[in-house]
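Saturday, quiet lab. Running sequence design on the structure tokens for the scaffold JK sent over.
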């Protein structure tokens, strides 16, 4: 297994779209909030600016037919350029300040007034920009009054005429609230996309089957859907845990005739894959473990044992967790005597192994009395001898062992088994935890058969990037076949034979009538 702590950085378009779709709420929320912030900032924090423009026409008093000759137009355009420069002088600006009575410096007024000429004409514009519309109009009117006198004081042949007077501005030219709001939305969307990709890159939790197989180089034997009752029970227990810390969040889920077809089928898939993986006529011993607690290994072990027993094989489910055994709780059995007692020689096999009446061919060996040295018992010669004896009585032995990253009991047990199955949980187990677990088994050359992906959400048939789960459609489409799974073997033969007999009787009746 390669180093899984390296952050994933190579994404294709399909993966990126999937990531964005899975985090669309965050992206949309950031876009809306950022747009709202930009809008409010524009509305309350930025001072509105207004603008008013007046247009002036330069004429030569010695010749009123301006524009009839190109040379004369060129001459007037030069006059326009001269007038514009005169309007920009400090002397003229100071006269405007004095005449209008505004409290501005020369530099501030220059910053408010801009002049520009229109190419090919003798017209130029005077634009005044500021935060006060009344002040803007006062400046425009003052310029209109002082401009003709200033021009006449310089030349007797030229003058300016207002061809389009300034108007009082009624709406601000800036800020543009719509533009700024859209800018905020776009910026928030970009930040949301970046965060979505960054979170996915840093997220080391399992997202789906394909990624799990690619990164662990092991097959996923089955994907076990979530129990809907499990979700409701956990929510209920979380509320109880607020008042009592001793409340456990663990739930007991066993498949029966009322279990969703998708869940039942997933355990049958696991059963089939294990049967094809481990060959031979001798007893098959399989270890089921998980990296950490609450990954669902006990539930998987119990339901796998039930599913295997339904095929007619003699199955023994062993609770190998001699510290915190839970298998007896699933079947409502006593745990005063069990595995630890057998290994210690304080109990007899025939009386310790319990038959489950509800399920034919299924027996259970509970964990027993909590010993002071469970790891030593699991690695003892007595444990090996016990497994040899049990192998003579059963076709399959499933051992629910403790989490491998917590205690080492699973390592010696794995040497007694034909293979190890590691149960992991979607959106909870991390690749670092899985890597540690797998390396522990590989260090002692244990046979790791594959992985089981537990707690897969199929309620909406949603996809997570390239990890798509289409169980809901796929399983429900074939759910009408479920009725045949509960048939007693031989029923079809009986029905066919009875139908053939009735057909013979009807044919004989017809021949007699003839």
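Result came back. Writing it out in full:
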């Amino acid at each position: 297994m390669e180093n899984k702590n390296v952050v994933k950085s190579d994404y294709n378009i399909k993966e990126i779209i999937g990531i964005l779709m899975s985090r669309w709420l965050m992206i949309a929320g950031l876009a809306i909030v950022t747009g709202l912030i930009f809008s409010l900032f524009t509305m309350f924090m930025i001072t509105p600016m207004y603008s008013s423009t007046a247009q002036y026409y330069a004429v030569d008093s010695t010749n009123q037919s301006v524009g009839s000759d190109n040379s004369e137009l060129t001459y007037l355009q030069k006059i326009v350029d001269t007038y514009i420069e005169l309007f920009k002088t400090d002397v003229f600006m100071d006269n405007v300040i004095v005449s209008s009575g505004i409290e501005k410096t020369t530099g501030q007024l220059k910053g408010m007034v801009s002049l520009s000429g229109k190419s090919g004409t003798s017209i130029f514009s005077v634009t005044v920009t500021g935060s006060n519309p009344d002040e803007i109009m006062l400046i425009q009117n003052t310029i209109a009054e002082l401009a003709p006198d200033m021009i006449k004081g310089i030349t007797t042949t030229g003058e300016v005429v207002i061809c389009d007077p300034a108007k009082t501005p009624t709406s601000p030219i800036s800020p543009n609230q719509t533009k700024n709001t859209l800018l905020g939305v776009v910026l928030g969307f970009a930040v949301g996309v970046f965060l979505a990709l960054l979170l996915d890159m840093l997220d080391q939790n399992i997202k789906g089957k394909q990624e799990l197989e690619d990164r662990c180089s092991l097959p996923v034997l089955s994907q076990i859907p979530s129990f809907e009752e499990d979700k409701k029970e956990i929510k209920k227990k979380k509320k109880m845990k607020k008042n009592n810390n001793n409340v456990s969040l663990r739930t007991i889920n066993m498949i029966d005739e009322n279990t969703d077809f998708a869940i039942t089928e997933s355990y049958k898939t696991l059963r089939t894959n294990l049967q094809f993986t481990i060959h031979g006529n001798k007893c098959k011993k399989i270890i089921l473990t998980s990296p950490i607690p609450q990954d669902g290994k006990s539930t998987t072990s119990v339901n796998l044992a039930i599913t295997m027993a339904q095929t007619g094989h003699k199955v023994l489910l062993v609770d190998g967790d001699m510290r915190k055994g839970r298998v007896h709780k699933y079947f409502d059995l006593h745990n005063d005597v069990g595995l630890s007692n057998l290994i210690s020689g304080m109990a007899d096999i025939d009386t310790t192994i319990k038959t489950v009446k509800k399920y034919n061919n299924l027996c259970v060996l509970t964990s027993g009395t909590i010993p002071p040295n469970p790891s030593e018992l699991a690695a003892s010669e007595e444990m090996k001898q016990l497994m040899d004896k049990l192998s003579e009585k059963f076709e399959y032995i499933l051992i629910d062992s403790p989490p491998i990253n917590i205690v080492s009991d699973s390592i010696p047990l794995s040497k007694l088994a034909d293979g190890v199955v590691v149960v992991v949980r979607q959106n909870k187990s991390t690749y670092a935890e899985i890597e540690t677990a797998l390396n522990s088994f590989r260090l002692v050359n244990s046979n790791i058969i594959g992985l089981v992906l537990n707690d897969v959400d199929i309620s909406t048939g949603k996809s997570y990037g390239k990890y798509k789960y289409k169980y809901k459609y796929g399983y429900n489409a074939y759910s009408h076949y479920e009725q045949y799974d509960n048939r007693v073997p031989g029923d079809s033969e009986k029905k066919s034979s009875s139908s053939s007999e009735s057909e013979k009787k009807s044919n004989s009746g017809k021949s007699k009538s003839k």
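Notes for JK: The chain is about 50% helix and 15% strand. Confidence is low (pLDDT under 50) at residues 1-7, 64-68, 460-500, 502-514. Ask whether to fix the surface positions before the next round.
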